[in-house]
């Protein structure tokens, strides 16, 4: 492709992007295709000769777009958000143009040094004290794995990497059942074994871990000759937003010398608002904390921010320095690949820099405050509706509810109401005006509602609710 053709297509892609985002609210939120429908339209063999860009671009609209679920839709209230923004998109475009592989300081000093600076901005923004060093990971899963590997090595005196785990002590990890499945996965990959993930019961309105039960579990393990290695505390669990009492959990961690990792993948972004920081009280005593600006801080996926108290423990765990990666004749810099599982690194700091500078902290706080306020308002409306039940109160901008129409009563039985709600959810998502997902809480099928998209307004929240009520009424009538 010559420069002028590239310029024309780059402009066309920019126009396409602006038009797409301006009109995304008119599309059904969740893709409305059947499994295999897109695949069948794609030729089985690659083209032997290049095709005109016009044809490729028109196939984007014809073949690909019907199979897209629109995460930037203002009425996307499913899962957790992945709320991108125009400044982040522009930065991603530039990042793609640079196409730099930023594995070492030397392979792009600006990428490393911008990352160090922007991560320190983020640290200040969420109110973490001095003394934490930040790194951008590809995902919260990757950060949690890095943390549990570090905890493993710390518990083994940094000998596990050299000797392997065979014949060593049994290492234990503690978490509530509210943590994300990435913790289960990290426990597996890091070699602890599923059986050594000890589940601590939760209680209270925040569904947080019982710190006394945690303390008792660690003592019992010690007495049995097992080695407590790590605690994973949850700040904003995926299912219902559960928050562990981090201060009390951190006190237990300190008492027993156990590594504490805090998974704040979703809720961490809200910590830029001082009024929500009660939820993270005690996090300053953690060894590691992760949150995803790619969820709720208007920054494109992927961008996961991990803060560690002792970066040397992390680099002693993950750093490997073969001769072909040495930077000759220079000293005193950070090579972030030694902080992460993959070697290769995208220039992820750029989009964060664009976002923070372009909005400023106050505007970012304002958007998050709106999301929380609208979620709370809608939860209040649902709690007052005789046909619905608010099954978990909002924690920040996430709550759950279910349809329990007056006539159905509790006598309809859990299974019948579960089935009714599953049917309702299917119809809501087939309808396309909004997109919601489910979880199980207290043994019941419940519908999750989180507010966090960049383009969402209060009106979108209310339109979604009106759609839910209308579809529920139709379900009952039909
Ligand atoms: N932790 C929590 C609380 C999450 O909600 C999620 C994903 O939704 C993850 C971890 C995993 O995030 P990632 O996709 O960045 O690995």
Automatic annotation (TrEMBL):
Pfam families: Pyridoxal_deC. Its cofactor is pyridoxal 5'-phosphate. GO terms for cellular component: cytoplasm. GO terms for biological process: amino acid metabolic process; carboxylic acid metabolic process. GO terms for molecular function: carboxy-lyase activity; pyridoxal phosphate binding; transaminase activity. The modification N6-(pyridoxal phosphate)lysine is found at residue 295. The keyword S-adenosyl-L-methionine does not apply. It comes from the Bacteria. InterPro entries: Aromatic_deC, PyrdxlP-dep_de-COase, PyrdxlP-dep_Trfase, PyrdxlP-dep_Trfase_major, PyrdxlP-dep_Trfase_small, Pyridoxal-P_BS. The keyword Iron-sulfur does not apply. Keywords: Aminotransferase, Decarboxylase, Lyase, Pyridoxal phosphate, Transferase. This is Aspartate aminotransferase family protein. It comes from Methylobacterium nonmethylotrophicum.
């Amino acid at each position: 492709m010559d420069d002028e053709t590239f310029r024309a297509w780059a402009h066309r892609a920019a126009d396409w992007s602006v038009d797409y985002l301006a009109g995304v609210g008119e599309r059904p939120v969740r893709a409305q295709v059947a499994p295999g429908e897109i695949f069948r339209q794609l030729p089985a063999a690659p083209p032997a000769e290049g095709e005109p860009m016009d044809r490729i671009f028109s196939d984007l609209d014809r073949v690909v777009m019907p199979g897209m679920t629109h995460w930037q839709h203002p009425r996307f209230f499913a899962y957790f958000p992945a709320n991108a923004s125009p400044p982040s998109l522009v930065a991603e475009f530039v990042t793609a143009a640079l196409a730099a592989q930023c594995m070492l300081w030397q392979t792009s000093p600006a990428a490393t040094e911008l990352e160090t600076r922007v991560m320190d901005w983020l640290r200040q923004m969420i109110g973490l004290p001095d003394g934490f060093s930040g790194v951008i990971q590809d995902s919260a899963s990757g950060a949690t794995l890095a943390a549990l590997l570090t905890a493993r090595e710390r518990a083994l005196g940094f000998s596990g990497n050299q000797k392997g785990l065979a014949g060593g002590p049994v290492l234990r990890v503690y978490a509530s059942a509210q943590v994300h499945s990435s913790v289960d996965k990290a426990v597996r990959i890091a070699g602890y074994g599923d059986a050594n993930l000890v589940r601590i019961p939760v209680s209270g309105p925040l569904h947080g871990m019982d710190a006394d039960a945690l303390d008792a579990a660690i003592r019992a393990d010690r007495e049995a000759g097992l080695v407590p290695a790590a605690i994973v505390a949850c700040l904003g669990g995926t299912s219902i937003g559960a928050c562990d009492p981090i201060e009390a959990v951190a006190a237990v961690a300190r008492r027993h010398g156990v590594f504490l990792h805090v998974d704040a993948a979703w809720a961490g972004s809200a910590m830029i608002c001082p009024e929500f920081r009660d939820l993270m009280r005690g996090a300053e005593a953690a060894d590691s904390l992760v949150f995803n600006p790619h969820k709720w801080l208007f920054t494109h996926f992927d961008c996961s921010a991990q803060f560690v108290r002792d970066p040397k423990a992390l680099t002693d765990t993950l750093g490997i320095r073969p001769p072909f990666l040495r930077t000759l004749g220079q000293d005193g810099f950070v090579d972030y690949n030694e902080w992460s599982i993959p070697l290769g690194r995208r220039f992820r700091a750029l989009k964060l820099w664009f976002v923070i500078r372009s909005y400023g902290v106050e505007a970012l706080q304002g958007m998050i405050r709106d999301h929380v306020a609208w979620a709370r308002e809608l939860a209040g409306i649902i709690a007052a509706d005789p046909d619905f039940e608010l099954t978990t109160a909002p924690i920040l901008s996430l709550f759950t509810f279910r349809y329990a129409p007056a006539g159905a009563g509790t006598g309809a039985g859990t299974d019948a109401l579960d089935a009714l709600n599953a049917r309702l959810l299917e119809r809501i998502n087939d309808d396309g005006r909004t997109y919601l997902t489910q979880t199980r809480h207290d043994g019941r099928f419940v519908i999750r509602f989180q507010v966090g998209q960049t383009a969402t307004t209060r009106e979108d929240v209310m339109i979604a609710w009106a759609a839910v009520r209308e579809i529920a009424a139709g379900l009952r009538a039909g």
